[in-house]
Write a structure and sequence with these properties.
16% of the residues lie in helices and 12% in strands. With 98 residues, the protein is α+β, with helices and mostly antiparallel strands. The protein has a domain at 34-94. The longest helix is centred in the last third of the chain and has 10 residues, at 69-78.
Length: 98
């Protein structure tokens, strides 16, 4: 039977643990862009619901496959906005006048 040997480490030679990488927001995915929301001072309301867009820029904070994406599209439409894609992100902009 093999014997176990104690090993002594010199201070500072322990491997450094890497922090897990933050998952980058995917506008085509199902997540919510909390990082952008927080950068713009957006917080959840009293019920815990986070807004769907940044009012100052129109950038949408939900990914296109988010469970409530369709509600966002309907709400933006009802409010007189339409959703467009600029680059990789979705934005809510006023509907063009007819």
């Amino acid at each position: 039977m093999p014997t176990l040997r104690a090993t002594h480490k010199t201070a500072g030679t322990e491997p450094k643990l890497k922090k897990p990488k933050k998952k980058k927001f995917d506008p085509e995915g199902e997540d919510y862009d909390y990082e952008t929301a927080k950068k713009h001072g957006i917080k959840p309301d009293k019920t815990g619901h986070w807004p769907s867009r940044v009012p100052q820029t129109g950038i949408l904070l939900k990914g296109k496959t988010h469970p409530t994406w369709k509600l966002t599209v309907r709400g933006e439409d009802d409010a007189g906005y339409t959703i467009i894609k600029k680059g990789k992100r979705y934005y809510s902009v006023p509907k063009p006048e007819k």
